[in-house]
Amino acid sequence: MRSNLAGPRLLLRRLREVMAEPIKAQARLDKIVVLIASNVVAEVCSVYVLRADGVLELYATEGLNREAVHRASLRVGQGLVGLIAAEARPLNLPNARAHPGFTYLPETGEEAYNSFLGVPILRAGRTLGVLVVQNKSHRTYLEDEVEALQTTAMVIAEMVAAGDLEAIAQKATGLDLSRPIHSSGTGLAEGVGLGHVVLHEPRVVVTNLIAEDVDAESSRLEVAINRLRLSIDDLLASGDMAGMGEHREVLEAYRMFAHDRGWIRKIEEAIRNGLTAEAAVEKVQSDTRARMLRQTDPYLRERLHDLDDLAYRLIRELMGRKHGPLSSELPQDAVLVARNMGAAELLDYGRDRIRGLVLEEGGPTSHVTIVGRALGIPLVGQVDDIVSLADAGDAIIVDGDAGEVHLRPAADIENSYAEKVRFRARRQAQYRRLRSKPSVTKDGVEITLQMNAGLLVDLPHLAEAGAAGVGLFRTELQFMVASSFPRMREQKAQYSQVLDAANGKPVTFRSLDIGGDKVLPYLRSIQEENPAMGWRALRLGLDRPGLLRTQIRALLTAAAGRELKLMFPMVAEVAEFIRARDLVDRELKHLRRHGHTVPEHIRLGVMVEVPSLLFQLDELMMHVDFVSVGSNDLFQFFSAADRSNTRVADRFDTLGIGFLRALKTIVDAAQEAHVPVTLCGELAGRPLEAMALIGLGYRDLSMSPASLGPVKAMLRTLDAGRLSARLLPRLEPGHPDTDIRTLLKRFANEMDVAL
Ligand code: PEP
Ligand code: MG
Questions:
Q1: Is the CB of residue 644 below 6 angstroms from any atom belonging to ligand 1?
Q2: Which pLDDT score, from 0 to 100, does residue 242 have?
Q3: In angstroms, rounded to a whole number, what is the distance separating the alpha carbons of residues 362 and 379?
């Protein structure tokens, strides 16, 4: 059958004229349906728009009963129109009434029509409505008619996205595009942020849809594709990918798509039908996206992400826009939304205007998470499809505590969160007031509160939170956020900057704790069955002494003329510490021999985090200058419960009687040997647990900066002597009630301890 279409290009040209006319949205939509009907030689052309309540409302029609406009409606999934919206794909039927999904809407008067062609109105893969043509005759619409209708649907999608149709909505429900969305992900950094969406990779809005000169558009596409291919080849060749948050595999996938003839042919076809090159890329991507979103196979969905990224890159190439938003363009309350982001990219935004971060990917140990936490930015990761659901400027709430995201929240949700934020701010202000107050219990016991850190951005917290020093500086973080192995010079620079920033307060560096699950992208890693118990930390350092010696030399030179406190992680035998100490001695000799200034004092310590050390405490205390309890690892090995496995991590109580006895054994042994002891695991940062530690005899705790205020508020209201008198007898064998957590809560309650 000959196509009834008088050329999709002609249709697009007419559409452009209609779009340029200074008329109201309803009048424009009415003209568009007339135009399409005459172009496709159809008796009927109708536009249905998806409302926020999941109903498709008839917005305009040529051919059906006009009285039905804004009255007739179908739910998603109901009738043929509802089916198209639900499945986001065209339906082309010579005899619509024979289709099992057909639903007759009497108010429209559509009983006279047989053939039916409907296409979804798509934008960035989201269905915003449905565009339909119908004929009395039994006919199957041709491929290029389907194309023409899809292209026209893009123009309507832009009208919806621009908010033009919101104004003519009859109901207060609003359109689907502005529907509130609640998504659950994984809370990666605590805190709550309210603000407005900033897309890290802004979707370039293609407003120039209709081509003036098809040949010129084809050549633009060719040039842009060549440039895109070259830029991917460059990235692959440079090997410098970590900063971009990209891995080789992803780039290989990009390269494959960038050479895919099928993809390029579809874009060329859309240009021949009258779209500009960028609109053609967007159309093809929108179709692909809608098709692939129905895929449940995680591999294919992952590839969709790659293809999405590639299409956006190509569109940006065509529109000459290469960069994300500049910091100066950010709103005061920006919530960054991205598929993923490199740590360096987050740092580039600066801290001032960022209220939160939402990622489709991101895990608890990914670099961006580490930096996000260090900057105190509420962060939720693993939020499906948030990039395509969110539009720049949308209101959004990030709840890093619960791992929830509310996009375009309803007023009541927004109010209750605003209250939560105000409450947190009031508490923070109280904690700030405590900053300069002494860290002493009610009965006069002095407790040293230090903070944990790992990046330079952490250091300002020292003064802000009023910490006495850095009790744990996790040196591996510098290695994890770098794109290649930091050289001796870079390590030294970082350590001296840390010491400078600490301004005379003590800093306890911990030697590299890499290996296991802390992988460095540039360091070949070995697959291990149990990485936490594998070749990590000091084990790796002793087997590859070059690595450890470089770090030791960097630390010794950075601390020249000052004090150097260094401890070693994952020590299981005293002999390991002695070997590490020998390495320090050798480096020290080497530096002295070459006339370098060395630290004025060197204190070497051990992290007590492998249970075997509990049975070597006396020998250990004879050799070390200090110890620090790594309660995170100690507890996971003590209770044989993987700290990163959510199924078991919280299974056993850290205030269980067995673990408290272990912690007591350590503090007793250290005190008896007059060896300073700190505890630097997460336990120290939780007020009730910190209270228990003080009851056991710990007098030096190191925690995340945000915990310093709550812990100080607790201890200033605590009578340490009375607590010990209540707690310690209960740790003796033979007492029938072993529920220590309840005992501690009751004590706090009775004594008005501020928990
Ligand atoms: C610990 O294990 O308690 C500790 C402080 O070190 P990390 O959490 O870095 O393993
Ligand atoms: Mg540890």
A1: no
A2: 39
A3: 9
DSSP code per residue over 5-31:
-S-HHHHHHHHHHHHHS---HHHHHHH
For residue 564, list its beta bridge partners.
602
CATH of residue 230: 1.10.274.10
Residue 599: partners with Cβ closer than 8 Å, 6 or more residues away: 556, 559, 560, 561, 562, 563, 564
Tokens linked to 224: 């842009």
Phi and psi angles of residue 152, each rounded to the nearest 5 degrees, phi first: -65, -35
**Can you list the positions of beta strands (E) in 551-597?**
563-568
pLDDT for residue 330: 86
Single-letter amino acid code for the residue at 417? Y
Give the orientation angle of helix 214-238 with respect to helix 261-272, to 10 degrees: 150
The verdict on 218 and 195 lying in the same domain is no
Tally of CB atoms within 10 A around 594 = 7
Q: Specify the pLDDT at position 300.
A: 67
Per-range mean pLDDT, top range of 47-51, 237-241, 692-696: 692-696
Residues 297 and 353 reside in one and the same domain? no
- Structure-block tokens of residue 213: 């000169």
Looking at the predicted structure, is the pLDDT value of residue 699 above 50?
A: yes
Q: Alpha-carbon distance 132 to 343, whole Å?
A: 47
To the query of whether residue 680 is one of the catalytic residues in this protein, the response is yes
For 674, how many CA atoms within 13 A lie in the half-sphere containing its CB?
0
Banded model confidence at residue 107, pLDDT cuts 50, 70, 90: confident
pLDDT digits (tens, 9 = 90+) for 29-40: 999 999 999 888
Q: What pLDDT does 521 receive? A: 67
Q: Per the domain annotation, does 429 fall within a domain?
A: no
Closest residue to atom 4 of ligand 1, CA basis:
630
CA distance 629 to 616: 14
Looking at residue 234, its amino acid is D
Ligand 1 and 476: CB distance under 6 A: no
- Sheet with 126-135, strands from edge to edge, namely 73-75, 55-62, 44-50, 126-135, 115-123, 91-93
Q: Residue 56 maps to which CATH number?
A: 3.30.450.40
Contact 450, 461 (CB under 8 A): no
237 pLDDT more than 90: no
Q: How far is CA 306 from CA 124, 271, 311, 380, 551, in A?
A: 14, 23, 9, 21, 38
Confidence label for 465 from pLDDT (cuts 50, 70 and 90): confident
Closest CA to 280 of 306, 303, 314: 314
pTM exceeding the 0.90 threshold for the entire prediction? no
Which two three-digit tokens encode residue 344?
Answer: 């360096």
pLDDT at 166: 74
Q: Which residue has the higher pLDDT, 272 or 321?
A: 272
Model confidence at 2, pLDDT cuts 50, 70, 90, reads very low
Determine phi and psi for 719, rounding to 5 degrees: -100, 100
H or E segment at 255?
helix 248-258
* Sequence-distant (≥ 6) Cβ neighbours of residue 741 within 8 angstroms: 653, 655, 688
State which of 458, 480, 513 you would mutate to test the pocket of ligand 1, scoring each by most atoms of that ligand within 8 A of its C-beta: 513
Instruction: At 109, list the tokens.
Output: 């008067």
Report whether residue 636 contacts ligand 1, using a CB cutoff of 6 Å.
no
Residues 454 and 406 in one domain: no
Count Cβ atoms within 10 A of the Cβ of residue 288 and give its class: 0-12 exposed, 13-18 middle, 19 or more buried: middle
Whether 722 and 620 map to the same domain: the answer is yes
Rounded to whole angstroms, how far apart are CA atoms 574 and 537? 15
Residue 238: give the domain boundaries.
214-319
Residues 591 and 528 in one domain: yes
User: Mean per-residue pLDDT for 77-100?
Assistant: 92
Question: Confidence class of residue 294 from pLDDT cuts 50, 70 and 90?
Answer: low
Return the best residue to mutate from 511, 567, 632 for the ligand 1 pocket (most ligand atoms within 8 A of CB): 632
Q: Alpha-carbon distance 290 to 308, whole Å?
A: 11
Give the total number of structural domains in the chain. 4
